[in-house]
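Q: I'm a student working through a structural biology exercise. My instructor gave each of us a protein and asked us to get a predicted structure, then write a short paragraph describing it. Mine is Probable RuBisCO transcriptional regulator. I'm not confident about reading structure output yet, so if you can add a plain explanation after the tokens, that would really help. Here is the sequence I was given:
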Amino acid sequence: MRFRPSPRQLDYFIALAETLHFGKAAEKCNVSQPTLSSQFRLLEENLGAGLLERGSGDISLTAAGERLLPLARQALESLDEIVVVAHAGRENLGGLIRLGVSPTFGPYFMPYLLPILKRNFPDLELYIREDRPNLLEEGLAAGALDCIITPDIAPSGQLTERELCHESVSLAVPRGHPFSGLEVVPVSLLKGEKLLSLGHGFRLHNDVQALARAAGAEFLQDYEGTSLDALRQMASIGMGLALFPAAYIASEFPKEPNLLLKKVEGIAMHRVMYLVWRDGSSRAAHYEKLLSLALEAVKSMQAEGVEAADT
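A: Happy to help. First, here is the predicted structure for Probable RuBisCO transcriptional regulator. I'll explain a few features afterward.
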């Protein structure tokens, strides 16, 4: 019979890939280091490929290891799903959901979603990971996450994307700026203005870049913020103008005395948030139910500029 790695061997491989240390990997898997080492060596021998480079005290993934790591994660996730579907059923959304959320939306949305989930599924375990959208999508594809809430994702034949809400985006200018007396800022007036942005991997980074190109504005790549709070602080001291989504504005701008919010005329200023999972997942019914509860949470936010998607 053709060799098939055991789930335990795949666990050892993933632990080694994540820790790059045999002792830490063994501790993570609750086994002795000799047990893990021998089973991992057996895995490499039967595969006919080295998965780790072993140097002087350091280890790293080989090219084969890099290719096989996402497949190992997907294989274990498929085994987990067999157990979930067989035992948990639909009444508790599978018992565990690993949910990825964009940090430009999650902190202002999850406080509304969590009580609804707790009320409807008190025994549900929810693992929440906040990260940049590009990293969330990688985690979803690799099987490290079950579903994600992310903005403006491109359609993919490998993913199911469901609209959650539409969210307006506004331009923040410091008090005393020449634009402070305008209700709406024509995009042409932004020519030469400095625009602040979040770092690579955020959709808002792409949005600011597109606005800078359309307006002839200066895109400040040397001053990319790591969070919306950092961006707001830089804008408030006059380092540049910045874009902010409506959910963040509703949560944080009531206590911001130094910035004014403006609409921009002549360019689309909104984004769409999606709930996304892998196409063909056996847990699609769980995620559809999660979507219905998430839509309920969006409506309960009652935030100006945040509208639940049509169902």
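A: Here are two points you could use in your paragraph. The chain has a mean pLDDT of 91. The domain at 7-68 is CATH 1.10.10.10 (Arc Repressor Mutant, subunit A). It's a good idea to check both against the output above yourself.
Q: Great, thank you!
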